[in-house]
Amino acid sequence: HKPSTLKEIYAKYKNGTPISVVTAHDYISGKWADAAPSCDAVLIGDSLAMVAVGYPTTLEIPFDEFYYHCASVCRAVKSKYIIADLPYGSFESSVEKCIESSMRLMKLGKICSIKIEGAYEHEESISRLIKLGIPVTGHIGLKPQRFNGLEGFRVQGKTVDSALQILKEALFLQETGISLLVLEGIPHEIASYITTKLSIPTIGIGAGNGTSGQVLVQADLLGMHTGRGPKFVKRYEDLYGKGVAAIEKYAQEVSASAFPDNAVHTYPMKTKVLEEFL
Ligand code: KIV
Ligand code: NA
């Protein structure tokens, strides 16, 4: 079937049906996201730097490595709206740089929207992309690319000032022409309030149930790694536990000469040929 479109996502938004987005970081996770019929969109988030490539922060991943993962996801996803992040360092220095990085991602032929963390500081770049026909997804609240600032890696919008700032950024980004807005790590009351003040869908993560949709990191929701992760994550599976246990079982069976079982896991040979050979 054909990829879901922004139009279809907006139709859900207008109906009041929550939109579901999941990240993907490679070919396999792309296939899994693509195969879940109710899932509306796939985000190739720069969280893959930590989740799939092992960098301690998202700041470290070079654009080319991020691009390689985007290409893998794009080969897998056939039926979903795909949003891709612009990783740290790939767009901030100039409008040209932002267009160049975005165009490289768009040339993969599958990506439908480019996501940029921030607001006023990227005004020119965001409006240029939109003028060039590249839909932009905003991302405000907790901005992981800016954890070095005073705001740190913490929930945002907990004071009147901070909540008002986020609301203003949301309205500004809507005015600039973005199509979707990710709200990360803000109190649910603030995320809901902002959602009611906008006429574009909000996609929340750690922002409660009052946004127009949700996004989760696939590795978090499937429990692909150790640890519980942040409070907002619901772990729907324990793939880490299951995976390690299965590999351990395999290794033990190999040690015990219980795998492979010649009656099951091998190829047959004609007895006559075998007799001749032996
Ligand atoms: O990188 C990412 O996965 C994201 C989502 C958590 C919104 O930006
Ligand atoms: Na991201």
TrEMBL record:
InterPro entries cross-referenced by the UniProt entry: Pantoate_hydroxy_MeTrfase (IPR003700), Pyrv/PenolPyrv_kinase-like_dom (IPR015813), Pyrv_kinase-like_dom_sf (IPR040442)
A GO biological process held by the record: pantothenate biosynthetic process
Molecular function terms from GO: 3-methyl-2-oxobutanoate hydroxymethyltransferase activity; magnesium ion binding
SUPFAM superfamilies (UniProt xref): Phosphoenolpyruvate/pyruvate domain
Reactions listed under catalytic activity: (6R)-5,10-methylene-5,6,7,8-tetrahydrofolate + 3-methyl-2-oxobutanoate + H2O = 2-dehydropantoate + (6S)-5,6,7,8-tetrahydrofolate
EC number of the protein: 2.1.2.11
Involved pathway(s): Cofactor biosynthesis; (R)-pantothenate biosynthesis; (R)-pantoate from 3-methyl-2-oxobutanoate: step 1/2
Domain of life from the UniProt record: Eukaryota
Keywords: Pantothenate biosynthesis, Transferase
GO cellular component terms listed in the entry, alphabetical order: mitochondrion
HAMAP family: PanB (MF_00156)
Family affiliation: Belongs to the PanB family.
PANTHER family membership: 3-METHYL-2-OXOBUTANOATE HYDROXYMETHYLTRANSFERASE
Listed name of the protein: 3-methyl-2-oxobutanoate hydroxymethyltransferase
Organism, as annotated: Kuraishia capsulata CBS 1993
